[in-house]
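FW: tagging you since you asked about this chain on Friday. Here's the raw sequence from the shared folder, copied in full. Didn't touch anything.
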Amino acid sequence: MASNDSVTYSQSRALLAIIKASFQAILANPSALVFSIAFPILFVIIFGAFRQDKGMQYAVAIQDGSDTTHAFYQALIKNPFVKIVRFSDSVSLRQALLRGKVTGVLAIESYLSANASPAIKIRFTSTTASGNTTGGFLQQLDYLILQQEATQANRIRSIQLLPPTIEEVRPYRPIDFVLPGQIGFSILFSTLFGIAFTFYGLREQLVLKRFFATPIRPINVLIGIGISRLFFQLVSVSVLIAFGHWVMDFTLHNGLTTFLSILLLTILMLFLLMGVGLLISSVAKVDSSIPLLINLFALPQLILSGTFFPVDVFPRWIQQISALLPLRHFNDALRKISFEGESLLACGTELGVLLGWTFLIYFLTSRLIRWE
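HL: got it, structure written out here
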């Protein structure tokens, strides 16, 4: 007689098996690990490194040859509202003054007063680009001088603050910083996604393979795709510049010459990005990994390259990493050309980094590119 006993199916064991298999599938997907863990950790490190300065701080440069032994200077550097900044050369200092990145320059000159006692003269020089911080800093100077003179037993006035010298310069508007960053942001993602997915699709759909049966050279396929992408991006950049200039008063220092210089610089950056797009499409095994590879290349640059906020908000070690990134130098060169009126040749450092990246990317692409 057959047994009517049936084997009881364990729903809990089945549930645990499904949970385990699902978790293993998540771990097998590199995108999940990168977007859920790696990128958040990266962002925490970067944004957590923002300088935690309390209240308003006045960035001030000290003129070469100033008396830094006087008690006034020691009190100045200890003031929590004053940050002494240094520049490698006078050109960098001048650029910072024109952009309003420093409040001004202090010159501290020692001399002997009428009664032969040591004294100092303080000369403050700034530009109208720093007009929003000049008044507050002069108040801090007056306060420090009063503090120093109150500590002197003989009450002899030994610190003389000369009338400030404020140079009238072209105002550095927010759009002069924002628009170059948005140009870099625009061409970065649109070029990478456009080239990578286009070339990957042509290869996977065997379109490129069919070209080998025709007299056309494979390199002409790349050139054709590249020229169309180049033309589209240049039109986009031209529209952005025209809108920024005519609607929001974006500075084009030398007019048409500046505009053409920006386009030439953009062409170089586009060649670099098209090479990155080809490299990504050749390395990617499946189309779902293309966005991951693009973001691995692009997102850190967006944050570290002065696209949305100045690089100097970061500590020095992050700024040094930023100096290696191509987008940082593209943004810097755009701002030099547009606002300061520099020529392309004057942006030698920026061009050198961009050319170095371009040669490196195309060298790797020539070794790794896949046609089939």
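FW: Residues 174-204 form the longest helix (31 residues).
HL: agreed, and The beta strands are 58-62, 82-85, 104-112, 118-127, 159-161, 165-167.
FW: great, closing this out.
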